[in-house]
Design a protein that fits this description.
This protein has 14 helices and eleven strands. The protein is of the alpha+beta class and 439 residues long. A hairpin with a 6-residue loop joins strand 9 and strand 10. Helix 3 packs across helix 4. The longest helix has 21 residues. It is globular. It starts with a helix and ends in a 23-residue tail after the last strand. About 9% of the residues have low confidence.
Length: 439
């Protein structure tokens, strides 16, 4: 009985040795798909060739696809998998990014340089053509065949075959973002008690419904927690199937400030809607007293359920009587300033600093409303600011950013495309996060 067992072992060892010697004989190029772009394939192929001798065929093919998904689509995987892929692709990814940066640098030529090159090319071609004999001149057909037209063909339908049609997510307003986005797209949004699962004393279930279709469910100890869990699942699903837009918090803003010498207009990257009211710090007497009494930060109360920010107050810094109105400056000049802003193609916000009085800000609100602008106030007391913005639809933002690549829109908005359109816009696949999701 020992002899047959020994033969089986020897046979298995021979087979293992044979497999080990033939593992590297498989063809990497056989894994290229018809729909894969040249850039994607070159990166995946480089990854497989670099590790072909050290990994089994099936595992290496999976790791290579995982690497490409992480690099181009921003996909996330278990931490161990991502760490393994990161270690294996370190040199390959660095070389790829360096080459891509060089290609982009060569691609983006200024308009003046491009026009100058085109003009030189025309002069050179016209001069050369004038020297050619009649029989050597190219025919009209050959001219048409040699002409290259960038961007020719039918325009891209951004919403073709998307599950939720023309729904666009505007990531602002915390928990209200999905509801507001659905309302803007004329779609019904609802968060309700789950009708599929029965809630118990210890577990509650909720679901998110769009146009009578359940798209996500959530579970929690309370109905509020269940709705919050369902909301996060719905957000993840919708961002994978819809376009997402988010305002750039560090965008440039036109700052209008009044001083004794007149009105100063500058550019800042600190917009009023991204600034927070200053909180208490160690320089504040109330802060130090509360620390001495055992306060360690956060809200007051046994469960820290109280407010965290100090109560706002109004600071009076002039000697005018209460309720008096003394508009300084000429409102007609400010109206002309806002009208010029409306008639320009500038997409930046116009921010009026706290140096303007409450009455002046109220006048600016009315001017903005009459001119079709959006106006909002931020801050409190002496930090109160007014922000005036042009109204732009989400579909216009997508067209300008993705189709026209309008730099003024690209500087102002971030766009994330659905997974189905990632191959068309590989530069807009990075995930955008919704802030204040607990609100």
């Amino acid at each position: 009985e020992a002899a047959p067992a020994e033969k089986v072992k020897q046979k298995k060892a021979k087979k293992a040795n044979k497999d080990a010697t033939t593992d590297a004989d498989w063809d990497v190029d056989s894994y290229r798909t018809d729909y894969e772009s040249e850039e994607h394939w070159e990166l995946r192929r480089s990854f497989m060739l670099a590790h072909k001798d050290n990994f089994e065929e099936d595992r290496l093919v999976c790791l290579a696809q995982t690497f490409v998904n992480m690099e181009f689509l921003g996909c996330k995987y278990p931490s161990d998998t991502m760490h393994t892929v990161a270690e294996m692709s370190k040199e390959i990814a660095e070389e790829f990014r360096r080459q891509r940066a060089q290609r982009l640098k060569r691609t983006f030529v200024s308009a003046s340089d491009a026009a100058e090159q085109r003009a030189k090319g025309r002069r050179k071609n016209n001069y050369a053509a004038s020297k050619l004999p009649p029989e050597a001149e190219p025919s009209n057909k050959s001219k048409r065949d040699s002409r290259v037209c960038f961007g020719a063909g039918e325009p891209i339908n951004l919403f073709e075959n998307l599950r939720f049609g023309q729904l666009i997510l505007y990531l602002a307003g915390g928990r209200n973002s999905l509801r507001n986005s659905c309302t803007a797209s004329c779609m019904k949004y609802e968060e309700r008690v789950c009708q599929e699962f029965q809630s118990t004393d210890t577990a509650k279930y909720a679901e998110v419904v769009i146009n009578e279709e359940v798209i996500a469910t959530g579970q929690g100890e309370s109905l509020k927690e269940a709705k919050h869990a369902a909301f996060k699942q719905a957000l993840l699903l919708l961002q994978s199937n819809c376009y997402s837009i988010k305002l750039n918090a560090t965008r440039e803003t036109i700052k209008v400030e009044k001083s004794k010498n007149g009105v100063n207009i500058n550019v800042t990257k600190e917009s009023a809607d991204s600034l927070e009211d200053p909180k208490l710090d160690a320089s504040n007497m109330g802060y130090r007293l509360m620390r001495l009494m055992g306060w360690t930060g956060g809200g007051l109360g046994r469960q820290k359920q109280g407010r965290e920010k100090p109560v706002g107050y109004l600071l009076k810094n002039d000697r005018n009587g209460l309720g008096s109105i003394n508009l300084q400056g000429n409102l007609a000049d400010y109206r002309k300033l806002i009208e010029n802003y409306v008639n320009s193609d500038d997409m930046r916000d116009m921010q009026f600093e706290p140096t303007f009085s409450k009455e002046e800000r109220a006048s600016f609100h009315k001017m903005a409303s009459r001119l079709g602008l959006r106006s909002s106030s931020y801050g409190s007391g002496e930090a109160r600011r007014l922000l005036i913005t042009k109204k732009v639809s989400c579909s216009t933002i997508l067209t300008e950013v993705l189709s026209h690549r309008n730099q003024k829109f690209c500087d102002r908005y971030f766009v994330q495309v659905p997974m189905q359109k990632a191959h068309l816009f590989p530069g807009h696949v990075a995930g955008l996060e919704l802030e204040n999701i607990s609100e």
